[in-house]
Write a structure and sequence with these properties.
The protein is of the alpha/beta class. The protein folds into two domains: 63 residues; 213 residues, Cyclin A, domain 1. It is built from 13 helices and six strands. Strand 1, helix 6 and strand 2 form a beta-alpha-beta unit. The longest helix has 34 residues. Keywords: Membrane, Transmembrane, Transmembrane helix.
Length: 299
């Protein structure tokens, strides 16, 4: 064999020595062990995540709620000047001590990730930022995933504005392409101060953002919202129920524009006049409770 390779003795000795030296090198270096452990842990973690996610989906199917809502390794605190706005909010003050800390933390995180922009000379101050943020956090307070992936910019106008997107004069719109929510501050405050029964621009437009988010994402909060919305659609397929809703005029006419406007107006009524909705249409009321996992009116 070696003569066929034309190897002389010195070269042969070097060849054998090299082979022996390779045998002495550990087959698994420290780096290889670390990589192996990391990959194994990653694969196991992914498998555990999907198993738990599947089990939670089954749990949701029967219990109509997630395993848990609040879990934070550390809780953020708002600075005192911003916390003062929270302390004046009726919903926040109705919460227990623990939930107040959760609400404050979520508000901090929302402010941290959201860019606020003023248009047409409007200067956005802390009061404006907090009023919008509080409304978003209230609407998503029953959801585990409260930071909406498709919303990262809030644009405030003094009053109505011309929408390039819709080619109309608007007081509010959600633009999923730019992940932006545009609001007339005047009209937002009108709803926020409960000056127009059953109507709230902020609730309406934020609901659009939540709805869009539920279509585009598959986390447990989005799954609950979207699946419950489909159940509600099926329930409203009954002609007599639809007629009763129209006849009571509990929802303004704009609700019947399309299914997206219907749910936005319905959530407005739910948040502004929950007991009236519960009294007249208890089934629909509980669909909204389930959709938002919002049980804070149940006392």
């Amino acid at each position: 064999m070696f003569s066929r390779l034309n190897l002389d003795r010195p070269f042969l000795n070097l060849y054998i020595t090299t082979l022996l030296s390779f045998e002495e090198v550990p087959t698994n270096s420290i780096l290889q062990n670390v990589i192996g452990v990391f990959l194994t842990a990653t694969i196991v973690s992914i498998c555990v995540y999907y198993v738990l996610r599947y089990l939670e989906s089954i749990y949701v199917k029967y219990k109509k709620k997630p395993y848990f809502i609040h879990f934070y390794p550390t809780l953020k605190k708002l600075p005192a000047n911003l916390q003062a706005f929270l302390d004046e909010n009726d919903f926040y003050t109705s919460l227990g001590k623990k939930r107040k800390r959760y609400f404050s933390h979520r508000t901090f995180r929302f402010l941290e990730k959201t860019h606020f922009v003023g248009r047409e000379g409007l200067v956005v101050d802390d009061f404006m930022r907090m009023q919008v943020s509080i409304m978003v956090i209230q609407l998503t307070f029953g959801m585990r995933h409260y930071l909406l992936e498709h919303l990262n910019t809030i644009v405030l106008y003094p009053t109505s504005f011309y929408s390039i997107l819709n080619q109309t004069e608007n007081i509010g719109e959600f633009n999923p392409r730019s992940k932006a929510l545009a609001l007339s501050w005047k009209d937002f405050q009108k709803g926020n101060m409960h000056q127009d029964k059953g109507k709230s621009l902020g609730i309406h437009e934020i609901t659009h953002a939540i709805h869009y988010n539920s279509i585009k994402n598959n986390n447990i909060s989005c799954e609950i919202f979207y699946d419950t919305f489909l159940e509600l659609e099926q329930y409203l397929g009954d002609e007599e129920i639809r007629k009763n809703i129209v006849d009571t005029r509990i929802l303004r006419d704009y609700a019947y524009t399309d299914k997206f406007e219907f749910i936005a107006v319905l959530v407005e009524v739910f948040m502004e006049s929950p007991m009236e909705l519960k009294e007249k249409f208890p089934e629909i009321y509980y669909y909204v409770v389930q959709m938002l996992n919002f049980k804070y009116f149940e006392k």
